[in-house]
Amino acid sequence: MCLIALAWKVRGHLPLVVAANRDEWRERPARPAHWWTDRPAILAGRDLQAGGTWMGVTREGRFAAVTNFRDPSDKRSTARSRGELVTDFLAGTESAARFLSNLSARDHEYNGFNLLVGDGVSLLYYGSREGHVRSLAPGVYGLSNHLLDEPWPKVTLARREMQAAIEEPDPAPRLFEMLSSTGVAPDVQLPHTGVGPDWERRLSAALITGADYGTRCSTVLAIDPDGTTTFEERTRDAQGAVVSTARHEFALRVAVGS
Known about the structure:
Elements: E1 3-11, E2 14-25, E3 30-35, E4 42-47, E5 55-58, E6 63-68, H1 83-91, H2 96-103, E7 113-118, E8 123-127, E9 133-135, E10 139-143, H3 153-165, H4 172-179, H5 197-203, E11 213-223, E12 228-236, E13 242-251
Antiparallel strand pairs: 1-2, 1-10, 2-11, 3-4, 4-5, 5-6, 6-7, 7-8, 8-9, 11-12, 12-13
Helix pairs in contact: 3-4
């Protein structure tokens, strides 16, 4: 993912709400969200090049999502796929805290990343550039290709819209509207991550369009206290139009956020 907004234990009727855009090169093959046949408890899209995923949830209430840390000067072609981090957590049984404590010793095997993991009781964040685990208190958070809550314009927008959306009976329409925003930030607000001003400008939009690279899908996940879960993923074309939708409603085997 390249933009994630989430609300954790902010509203009693929705202990976890996530809205995310996955940005990727369009030539990289992927399959939309589905229940994996080789790991039936996992609901996620799948990267068909490396076999992992960018965001997913399980019937046991485990959740994980990853974003890249943007730094073109530190990119190794020999690094392991960051998508396996999400897959490994979803497929495992360790608590979120134990999983991340074990990860710190091998985070150098990957290019820079930000990882969110939740086990239904706690939600934690690990950024490879920080190198330590953060346990997230109840609140609204935003993440793109820098540290958690870095005030990039689209992160600020995502957090603001998430805060407003969870006040509504159904947050999904407002969240998908936010994820569909193509507005770019003023140049004075652009970050300087080493990709040049043209790319900084293009990447500042929540929804990135273009034939080479852009937003491949938008996802909203909402989990009720009783475990009722809605996972909706909308696949997008190069112009940002929605070309297909995968919607899954199911019950978790455990309660979340208690």
